[in-house]
Design a protein that fits this description.
Length: 186
């Protein structure tokens, strides 16, 4: 159950952050296709990089949990300082991609938590859809303040669940070493 909740909240986080990047670009840059392309390309580049980097073990999923909102707030700081300045588009792509590394690292780190990978994708995708809806509702009802506050609110349960899962993984590994005869799966 904790695995499902963690995966769902990660999907919620991914949906919220991706669409928050988009809304911030839309309001501070332009509503042209270039802002959509910047967000989409940056996000895809980051997820693919995360998948590739996960084979090397650096950065870890836990490091990416911290890196993602940090780069999100750096993005907000730069775009707030230089609105409507297209010279910073390459930097925005890099910040979005760096924030999206967590997506690629997440999938490789959590694929073994479920008997079938389709269940991981199912729960993450449901969370992602909830994130999209939450971003639309949040921006509509609370405006720009929603885009600045939601990562602070969501990071606490994300880190808490990640800690519980990591601790449970360590206990399982210790039990497998201590009682190898009982931990075999036939």
């Amino acid at each position: 159950m904790i695995e499902i909740l963690y995966v769902f909240i990660c999907g919620l986080f991914f949906g919220l952050i991706q669409f928050s990047f988009f809304f911030i670009l839309e309001s501070n840059m332009s509503s042209a296709g270039l802002t959509y392309l910047t967000t989409t390309c940056g996000w895809l580049l980051g997820v693919l990089s995360g998948l590739a980097l996960s084979k090397r073990g650096r950065p870890t999923e836990m490091e990416a949990v911290f890196l993602s909102p940090l780069l999100y707030y750096a993005f907000i700081a730069v775009i707030s300082r230089f609105p409507y300045d297209t010279r910073f588009l390459p930097l925005y792509v890099v910040l979005i991609a760096g924030s999206a590394l967590y997506g690629g690292l997440f999938f490789t780190a959590n694929q073994k938590r479920f008997a079938q990978v389709k269940h991981l994708f199912f729960w993450e995708n449901n969370g992602f859809m909830a994130g999209i809806l939450s971003s639309f509702l949040g921006v509509t009802l609370a405006g720009e303040s929603f885009l600045k506050i939601w990562p602070v609110i969501l990071i606490a349960p994300l880190l808490g669940l990640r800690y519980v899962l990591t601790r449970g993984d360590r206990l399982e590994e210790d039990a497998a070493v201590t009682f190898p005869r009982f931990s075999r799966r036939d």
